[in-house]
Amino acid sequence: MSREWIRFPLNLMVHPFEGYWDLKYDRNRKFTLIISFCVLFLVAVTNILGSQYSGFLVHVYNPESMNSVMEIVYVIVPILFWCVANWSLTTLMDGEGKFVEIFTSTCFALLPLVIIQFPWIWLSNLVSLQETAFYYFSNSVAVLWFVYLLFVGNMTVHQFSPSKTIGIMLLTLVAMGFMAFISLLFFSLVQQIVAFISVIYQELVMRT
Amino acid sequence: MMNSLRKLKTPLLIMICCLLGVGAGAGNVSAESASDSYIYSYWGDVAAAPAAYVATEWISGSDLGTDAFQEPSDLHVTADNRVYVLDSGNNRIVVLDHDLKLVTTVDSFTREGEPDTFLQPQGIFVTDDGEVLVADTGNKRVVHLDSDFQLIKIIDSPESELLQDSFKFEPVRVVMDHAQRIYVMAAGVFDGFMEFDAGGAFTSFIGANRVYIDPIEYFWKQISTKAQRSQMVMFTPTEFTNLDIDSEGFIYATNGDQWGNNIKKLNAQGSDILRRTGYSDPQGDILYLSSEGPSKLIDIDVADSEIYSVLDGKRGRVFTYNGDGHLMYVFGGLGNQMGQFHTPAAIDRIGEDFLVLDKALGEITVFRTTEYGRTLNEAVKSYYRGEEETAFALFNRTIAMNANLEFAYAGIGKALLRQGDYKGAMMHFKRSLDQKNYSKAFLLYRKAVMREHFPLIMTMLCLAGIGIFAASRLRKVKERRKGASA
């Protein structure tokens, strides 16, 4: 079984149709969830290490603006937004996926980003300016692979046709935009309410 | 309660005095460092810098023993450090020597046996031979005098197919190159500088600014009628605000562009060849309040080694860049203290020092280099001349005085690279955030490391290969045995 923890996600990477079918119908939910969180953690770690230790030629970073907590947020928040937006849309549009399945399929799709980018954090310290083309190329490969896995995952989980999946994915992006807007609005309102209450409190305190 | 307070009184008093003293000291320090001396970092932030220049004195007309300056608009320093001030309000030229003492004043010249005078002249240029060119704006002509202020020629009302019949020639600034070609910046001309040949005949325009089109304005123009359009502002290129010429004959010019490049270096064809390899394009201030807007450059001065300085009329600051476009230092400002101006109009270098002419006050402020300024100037110059050893030592001294001077590290890095210290060079290029040179140093470093460890690496690889081969053989043999025994 212990080998399975590593073999299954890697196998899914290269045989996505088979793998996602497995993920949806055959696998233990606890098993897939644990792997999903592991992948999520690894992506966050890759992101932090990448912004700190990538080679100077591919990544000029300002130590004053580096914040590990924010790097984690930059990973977690978009994925959560994606899952929520995707779930909200697909429940309305006859998708068969449950939220857990959407979450696990999305996390599994992130794996190429770790597998390819993690070694490049160190490799990028060993390349010259001309050779950075390889770095950018493999980064693009990782992103394309991720998008492809996301596509297959979505299709399998919801049992959609390919064209409908593409449409849903685009709509999900739009929905994410809406969600970001509404959250900003919400936070700004909460901030104003808090300010209002604190002002009233100050007035009362000063008066006595 | 009162008792304990009384007991505490003396130490409290002492403490307050100490605090006040500290506060007063801090006040002094900040007043000193508030001399507007800063540079911009790679990230576009303001970084503190020691003052490269400090104002030491100011000179008015009465200090020189002549009438007070009235709205002086231009000054020029020759190669032998004679200063020519164009006193526009008094229609005269005031000549000072290298100690800034009065030599002579010129308010008329002889033309065809009769005395002639200037009328509201705006620009002056003096060649290395002492020949004087005056943009005599009020009289709509350029006056060319020799070193004894005798008339050589007058350029007025140029004629060409390029010019409209209604064209009014109002020269504002003028320069002349070694081939006696005269370049004139004229008011109301959007086609660039007017170029005149040695005989004084108009030849062409060079270096017109690009038109900037405001997208919103353009949209409205597209949907409006012809009658409406005729009432709207036309899209015209910006005018130049000033120009200077370097020893190689390249014209450095400033213009009032908000969006484009407001500093240009024009070659003989009129195309812009200014190097912009600094952390941000040379443009004056990078950070500014949006209500104030970007710098409005009104004068430019080119020194040797491609160092040039521009004067920001909006905030009264002088920005100096090296030939690669790195900001070297900033000084000046608007205000009432020494070293600040009311209406700055022109700058020029006299040796290492700067002269800034204030139009409203009719005064010249003299800025002298500090230790830091001298070292930095000399470092940049020796780097430009290719004397890397000297530049290395001088840049090391500048960064000892100002660790924020990021481009200086690249100078040190280059010298280290030449010396073969690749690792040190890499470190310094990284500090100056110079990826291109870092890559060069890194390639050499990698090659050196590989060469040093080549035998070890190859041995390891061979051993690994043999090991893998042996392991696979061993497994096969084992499996065969297993199969045999089964």
What does this structure look like?
- With 208 residues, chain A is mainly alpha-helical.
- In chain A, 82% of the residues lie in helices and 0% in strands.
- Chain A has 8 helices and no strands.
- In chain A, helix 1 packs across helix 2 (16-26), helix 4 packs across helix 8 and helix 6 runs antiparallel to helix 7.
- By secondary structure, chain B is of the alpha+beta class.
- Helices cover 31% and strands 28% of the residues of chain B.
- In chain B, the strands form 8 sheets. A 4-stranded antiparallel sheet of chain B has the order 3-27-26-25. A 4-stranded antiparallel sheet of chain B has the order 4-5-6-7, with no helix packed on it. A 4-stranded antiparallel sheet of chain B has the order 10-11-12-13, with no helix packed on it.
- The longest helix of chain B has 51 residues, at 435-485.
- Chain B starts with a helix and ends with a helix.
- The model of chain B is unreliable at 17-35 (pLDDT under 50).
- At the A-B interface, loops of A face helix 8 of B.
Order of helices and strands of chain A: HHHHHHHH
User: Which of globular, elongated, flat, extended, rod-shaped describes the shape of chain A?
Assistant: globular
Q: What is the rounded Rg of chain B? A: 31 Å
How many helices of chain B does DSSP assign? 8
In the predicted model, the low-confidence regions of chain B spanning at least 5 consecutive residues are 17-35
User: What's the average pLDDT of chain B?
Assistant: 87
Share of residues in strands of chain A: under 5%
- End-to-end distance of chain B: 100 Å
Oligomer state of the chains in this structure: heterodimer
Radius of gyration of chain A: 21 Å
Shape of chain B: elongated
Count of strand segments of chain B:
27
**Biggest interface pair, counts:** A-B, 9 and 11 residues
Widest beta sheet: strand line-up of chain B = 3-27-26-25
Strand content of chain B: 25-35%
